[in-house]
Amino acid sequence: MHPKFMDVLCCPETGERFSLEIREQRVNGLIVTGALRTRSGRSYPIIRGVPRFVDKQAYADSFGVEWNRWPRTQFEFENVGRPMEGHTTRMWDRIAHVSPEEVRDRTIVEFGCGSGRFLDVIRSKGGYAIGIDMSSAVDAARENFRNDPDVLIVQGDLLHPPFLPGVMDGGYCIGALHHTPDPAAGVASLLSVVRPDGWLACCVYSKDDFYDYPSLQRLRKTHQALKPYVGYLFATAYAYLAAYVAAPMLQKIKEFGGWKFVQYLERNVLVCLRLKDPRWRVLDVFDAITPAIASTHTPEEVRGWLEQAGCGDVRTTYWCPTSFAARRAAQIQIEAEAAPAAIKAIAA
């Protein structure tokens, strides 16, 4: 982390600001090891460039495995000239649906950042990127941005984030809230760190879609039953089998007119995705079957979370029925309005 991000951080338990202890720092200012301390005596380590506010991954351990195994597969620079080129940027644009001016030179936070593919989109648009994740995926994310002082990665709980109220110009959560015990609380948590009139966006699994298929529910249960004995071996083997054997086989059946048969198999028998790049199919099948928590939701539920949290201008965006954007009501008082400006001043 870079010291300029001290102006957005606070103790997730007490809300206190931190003093910074630096043990190892690079020439470009990035802190490799150190600690964040409060006046009341709490201390949080900075390890491998990441402030650590949790000491265990809890229900998020599968994402640490996933993103450390495939840390760059979905990054744009890994997909130039490949079938999924541009997909990550298009996905972010359609979910967030904000103008370039609302990202450029702004401080934007991602809840559930994984290895950082959407943070990379923020950086490509000229924003200051902050990512939080509970899992060890933060190590992959920090490595992906190891020389970028305008990216902050923290390991923490989305429901109790270590950020001061109202310090972000915008925030988003894509594909993470449904992996928490309380998605509605996650929305409220995200909103709390966004400034008045700032924007936020979220996208969760839709009900009655792929993530509700009986085939997927059954396979998740199988993975959880086998996990104490074989770890992620079964899930990994199945993901490769689905990507390189089942997907091409089902495509051939469809080409010979077997659409309905394929739909039946996908819904009830085989977990399989139709993504054009087999590398993405492996990753996304693994992602689908391994989480400990993976709830699905209706558009009405998601809209309700946003409105109950205090959002205005709530609207569906262009990715799926459960992708939404909104704004924080301008009249809500904040405690740290100057923090994003402080980051920009230091960066300049």
Count of domain modules = 2
Helix/strand/pairing category: alpha/beta
So, the CATH homologous superfamily of the largest domain? Vaccinia Virus protein VP39
Beta percentage is 15-25%
What is the overall silhouette? globular
Strands of the biggest beta sheet: in what spatial order? 7-6-5-8-9-11-10
Low-confidence spans: 332-339
For the sheet with most strands, the description reads:
7 strands, mixed
CATH architecture of the largest domain: 3-Layer(aba) Sandwich
Mean pLDDT: 92
Number of helices: 11
Q: Any overview of this molecule?
A:
The model is unreliable at 332-339 (pLDDT under 50). The chain is of the alpha/beta class and 348 residues long. The strands form two sheets. A seven-stranded mixed beta sheet has the order 7-6-5-8-9-11-10, sandwiched between helices. Strands 1-2-3-4 form a four-stranded antiparallel beta sheet. The longest helix has 23 residues, at 233-255. It is built from eleven helices and eleven strands. α7 packs antiparallel against α8 (259-268). The chain is globular, with a radius of gyration of 20 Å. The protein folds into two domains: 55-205 and 298-347, 3-Layer(aba) Sandwich (Rossmann fold); 210-289, no CATH class. β10 and β11 form a beta hairpin.
